[in-house]
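FORM 12-B: Structure-to-Sequence Request
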């Protein structure tokens, strides 16, 4: 039987493009705006200007995109947000969604 080129193409695509995950920060009533900006600049490598924009978007719309990563890195970012927030006494949370 001739090789099925469609499956070969699908396999190749799967191998070369691992799934990506969007990481979001969620709004709450207690986390200081400055702390969210700090999280966005330190963990997500945003400029101060961009971080302030994203923080205000979260504040108004309840959720904001911080970056797109592989599964392992996205999981690590979510965990780092949780740990840093907990250490500072804030309830700030991050979530991840398949792109
Ligand atoms: N809503 C918070 C406040 O008024 C600020 C905030 C912004 C909290 C973004 C979380 O992900 C967040 N202090």
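FORM 12-B RESPONSE
SEQUENCE OUT:
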């Amino acid at each position: 039987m001739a090789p099925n080129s469609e499956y070969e193409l699908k396999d190749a695509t799967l191998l070369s493009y691992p799934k990506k995950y969007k990481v979001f920060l969620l709004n709450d009533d207690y986390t200081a705006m400055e702390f969210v900006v700090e999280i966005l600049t330190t963990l997500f490598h945003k400029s101060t200007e961009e971080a302030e924009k994203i923080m205000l978007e979260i504040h108004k719309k309840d959720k904001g995109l911080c970056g797109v990563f592989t599964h392992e890195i996205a999981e690590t970012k979510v965990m780092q947000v949780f740990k840093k927030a907990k250490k500072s006494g804030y309830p700030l949370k991050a979530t991840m969604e398949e792109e």
